[in-house]
Structures are given as structure tokens and as C-alpha cells.
Amino acid sequence: MQIDILTLFPQMFQGPFSTGIFQRAIDHKLVSVNIHNIRDYTSDKHHTVDDYAYGGGAGMILKPEPIFEAVESIKSDIYREKGGGELPIILLTPQGRLFSQQIALELSRYSHLILICGRYEGVDERIREHLVTDEISIGDYVLSGGELAAMVVVDAVVRLLPGVLGSEASTLDDSHSNGLLEYPQYTRPAVYRGWSVPEVLLSGNHAQIARWRREQAIIRTLERRPELLDKANLNLEERRLVNRLSTSPTLPPSDEIH
Ligand code: 6GU
């Protein structure tokens, strides 16, 4: 996958993409990330990227010209090297659709993405109307720019690309991948300060372990994010468990259910 990011602050991207699984993914050529400075696509003497809002009001608005120029230049490079295909052009903005694991999965299926980091008080509306194909927000709070949001999106997408994580199975149980939060995890020692790892995990009985984990994931989701259960794919027995637990006055401690 190739990801092109347009930003006024390229230096913000130096840390996150040069560590951990990300660096590995880049080294193995599973992804390439190109950071473009929007200022490089200006054509006036002062390299102007923003201007006052028509109609007045505080704050500067990103001008359309440099962003159109940047996207069109990147697009033509991509078409020259790799030909056509659908190419999402995504604006990171608090007004976008709310990012989710589902959207990360959807984006991971494209061979290219172009991300535009919004800044200041906004972008000229013609960028929205005539250039971008999608707008994404990472949550209901305001960041000072789209850069951190772009990093969040790129991280969530790249870890889903085939070969990026050690084992293919490891994303399936992640919180949100199956509509549930992840079950509790333990490692050695089996007893730490008198706190034991649940028996079942030491049993070696894989069917029982899988059952326990599924149940724990459901319980945890019910405790923390009950609204997620409406969309989770639960069987009849699991629905009954949820009904039983949600009508009982207190949930049992998570290590007493097998
Ligand atoms: Cl994508 N941009 C900004 N500026 N703030 C945000 C956001 C994006 N997502 C949540 N808050």
C-alpha cells in the first residue's frame, strides 16, 4: 500500500513512522508513506497556504490552490507508475465520519490512500466539494490539526495489511474486530503477589479456553461498552448470557465464570 500525506507540518510525522511494526512494514516494503509539505505546492513568492475567511470571522482558512496542486501532482505520479484504480482522497476533519475498526478494514483494501491534514479554522469548502472523496474524524473532540488523526488512521490501517503483524490470527481477537472488547490476558508468573491467573487458562483445554475467552469478552463489553453488544454477532446462548447478566444486580467478578 502507498500512503501519501499532505501536511503543513511534515516534521510531526518523523517519530511515529520510524518505530516498531511500522518501521518493519516499511522495511519489508508492505507500505510506503510519503509526506508532502503543502507549502511546496504554492506558486506565489510568499508560499501562502492560508488566507482570511470571506465574510469575516477569526481564523485562517486553507487555500484551495496548493491542495489541488498537491493532490493532482500525486495522482498523476500514481497513474503513471501504477495505472488506474479507485483512489480515496481523505480529509481529516472533526466534521468527518467517525473512524472505526470497520473503516480501518475498509481502507486497508485499497492500494493507495491520499490523506489531507486540515489545519487552522478550516479548509476552503471547494476542497471538500470538488477534491476529496471522504472525510474522517477520529472522535468528538477538537485537535489543532489533522496530523495526529492521520497518524491514528495510518496506524490502524497498516497493522491490518497482510504480513505486517507476526501472526495473521492476532488481529481477529483485538478489541472491536469482532464487535466486542478483548478478553483479559495473562502471562507468567501464574501467581503474582498472591493473585492467580484463572485456572482455565492453565488447563491446556483449548476448547474450554476459547469458550472462557468469548464469555469474558462479552462480559467485559457489557460492563464497559454495552452499546456495542447491539451490533455484535452473538448466538442465542450468548444473548441469554447477556440477558442474565444485565438483569442481575451485580456482575460476578470476571475470574469466577468458566
Ligand atoms: Cl480528523 N481533525 C481535527 N482537527 N480534530 C479532530 C479530528 C480531526 N478528529 C477528531 N478531532
Set down the secondary structure blueprint:
Layout: E1 2-7, H1 20-27, E2 32-37, E3 50-52, E4 60-62, H2 64-82, E5 89-98, H3 101-107, E6 112-117, H4 125-130, E7 134-137, H5 147-158, E8 191-192, E9 195-196, H6 199-202, H7 206-224, H8 236-247
Parallel strand pairs: 1-2, 1-6, 5-6, 5-7
Antiparallel strand pairs: 3-4, 8-9
The protein binds 6-chloroguanine.
6-chloroguanine is lined by residues 92-94, 96, 118, 137-139, 141-143, 145-146, 149.
Q: Could you describe the 3D structure shown?
A:
By secondary structure, this protein is of the alpha/beta class. The protein has 2 domains: 2-166, SPOUT methyltransferase, trefoil knot domain (Alpha/beta knot, 3-Layer(aba) Sandwich), CATH 3.40.1280.10; 172-256, tRNA(m1g37)methyltransferase, domain 2 (Trp Operon Repressor, Chain A, Orthogonal Bundle), CATH 1.10.1270. Helices cover 34% and strands 16% of the residues. Helix 1 (20-27) links the parallel strand 1 (2-7) and strand 2 (32-37). Helix 7 crosses helix 8. The longest helix has 19 residues, at 64-82. The chain is elongated and about 70 Å long. The mean pLDDT is 93. The chain binds 6-chloroguanine. 6-chloroguanine is lined by residues 92-94, 96, 118, 137-139, 141-143, 145-146, 149.
